[in-house]
Design brief:
Number of helices: 9
CATH superfamily: Vaccinia Virus protein VP39
Helix content: 40-55%
CATH topology: Rossmann fold
Number of strands: 7
Largest sheet: 7 strands, mixed
Structural class: alpha/beta
Distance between the termini: 43 Å
């Protein structure tokens, strides 16, 4: 078992959230991420959160935007377990669900998609299929806005996060995607797109967030 899950099992569910928050703060400021996302999410949006994990970033976003509804999905057996109870009625959690499964279930098309710290975990060989699924979402809703939050490679903080993913989280295939690479990948799979870079990279480098839209 990777070191990270072993530690969570050892410390138990009551201590895992505060320790997890302190550890995450080494790599990303979730308040700044939420502020960056609020500037590019449309009013009253239904947001599809892909690869939502424990859901802690959603607490920061929903605190700032009381007009948002979120569906958070993750292929793992749990998703959204750290979402604050006061936000529970605004969030639908779908564990064991990847984007392909979501598309096949006939659920309501989202107004916006958030993909936060997921892209660098997708194996390079699997990225074309992932982007093809995003294209399907866009074909169903031409007004869709997709926001990708990830980490620019090349700095000591980025390298520390990469090592954490490989040796603590246990994802040996992790590979960071630069802002330039991300734009190229999106356009290669979907065609010409407009994109808007949020101020996140200025506020909390090497983290960045880019909104894509037609």
């Amino acid at each position: 078992m990777p070191l990270g899950p072993s530690i969570r099992k050892l410390i138990g569910p009551s201590l895992a959230p505060p320790i997890g928050r302190a550890y995450r703060n080494l790599f990303v400021n979730l308040d700044k991420v939420a502020r960056a996302l609020t500037g590019v999410l449309p009013p009253g949006a239904h947001v599809l959160d892909i690869g939502g994990g424990d859901g802690e970033p959603l607490n920061h976003l929903l605190e700032l935007r009381d007009d948002l509804r979120v569906t958070t999905i993750d292929p793992g057996p749990q998703v959204g377990q750290w979402i604050a109870p006061r936000f529970a009625e605004r969030v639908t959690c779908l564990p064991g669900t990847g984007i392909e499964e979501y598309l096949a279930q006939g659920r309501t098309d989202p107004d916006a998609v958030v993909i936060a710290d997921v892209m660098h975990h997708i194996p390079v060989a699997s990225r074309p299929a992932f982007f093809a699924s995003l294209k399907t979402l866009w074909d169903r809703n031409p007004d869709l806005r997709i926001i990708v939050k990830d980490v620019e490679p090349g700095s000591p903080r980025a390298l520390l996060g990469l090592w954490s993913d490989r040796y603590i989280t246990g994802d040996r295939g992790v590979s960071l995607v630069s802002r330039r690479q991300l734009v190229a990948l999106m356009e290669a799979a979907i065609g010409p797109l407009r994109h808007e870079e949020t101020p996140l990279h200025q506020w909390d480098s090497p983290n960045y967030a880019i909104a894509f839209f037609r």
